[in-house]
């Protein structure tokens, strides 16, 4: 299984990098995982609707150039379907069972994802109705994917 996380924005916080590195190391026993970090668009604090759309479109175009045509794409979006850890594990297990060896998760920038990215996504996943910083979302996602593999192997994990 090849898992790719495409994410917008640079990760600067050392503590987040350390956590992600730890889970990436643990994941190597289960699947190949890579993170593709794309630059975010610089934007002033206050934006018009049009400017917000333009920024999301530019970021979306960058994202779509990195998506493998064969990949099953899961976009992280607040309007997506919420799943338990067990349900995410089941989703990943079913994708593997049906021959989907490439899974791409997409984390947008601070304004979210463009319509084009959402159209390309095979599903939208929400971790909460709350908003999380996209940098923190990387760590949460990597941990949950790792947890899913532990669940699917019947190995212990913290509830």
TrEMBL record:
Q: Which EC number(s) are documented for this chain?
A: 2.1.1.177
Gene Ontology molecular function, alphabetical? rRNA (pseudouridine-N3-)-methyltransferase activity
Q: Which GO terms describe its cellular component?
A: cytoplasm
Q: Which reaction does it catalyse?
A: pseudouridine(1915) in 23S rRNA + S-adenosyl-L-methionine = N(3)-methylpseudouridine(1915) in 23S rRNA + S-adenosyl-L-homocysteine + H(+)
Q: Tell me which residues bind S-adenosyl-L-methionine.
A: 76, 108, 127-132
- Predominant location of this chain? cytoplasm
Q: Which residues form the signal peptide?
A: none
What are the alphabetically sorted keywords of the record? Cytoplasm, Methyltransferase, rRNA processing, S-adenosyl-L-methionine, Transferase
Under the heading InterPro entries, the entry gives: Alpha/beta_knot_MTases (IPR029028), RlmH-like (IPR003742), tRNA_m1G_MTases_N (IPR029026)
The subcellular location is: Cytoplasm
- Quaternary data: Homodimer.
Protein family per UniProt? Belongs to the RNA methyltransferase RlmH family.
Please describe what this protein does.
Specifically methylates the pseudouridine at position 1915 (m3Psi1915) in 23S rRNA.
Write down what this protein is called: Ribosomal RNA large subunit methyltransferase H
The organism's lineage is:
Bacteria, Bacillati, Bacillota, Bacilli, Bacillales
